[in-house]
Amino acid sequence: QVQLVESGGGLVQAGGSLRLSCAASGRTVSMNDMRWYRQAPGKEREFVAGIRWIGGSTYYADSVKGRFTISRDNAKNTVYLQMSSLKPKDAAIYYCSVAGVTWGQGTQVTVSS
Prior knowledge:
mainly beta; seven-stranded mixed beta sheet; 56% strand
C-alpha cells in the first residue's frame, strides 16, 4: 500500500501560481501512474493531470492544458503540480492519486478574484 501526503495548497489571487506536492511512502513500486484530481464544493471529483512514473509521459485535462504542469522526482518519490495563471474556477481540494485507486487527504486551493 502507498501512502500519499499532499501539501502546498493555500490562498492565491487570480493570475497567480502555486505548486502542490505529493509525497509518497510505503509500496512505492506500485506508483506507475500518478494523477492529480480536484473537487470543488457541490461538484464531482475531476481529473486534472497525470504522469507515468516510468518514462515521465504526461497528460492533462483540457481545462488546465498550458497552465498546469505535472512532474516527478523519482529520488524523493514526490509528484508536483505547478499551477499558473490560476482562475477562481480552479479553486478546489486537490487530491493526489495512484491510478485513481489510492488517494491522499487533499490540499485546499483557494483563488480570489
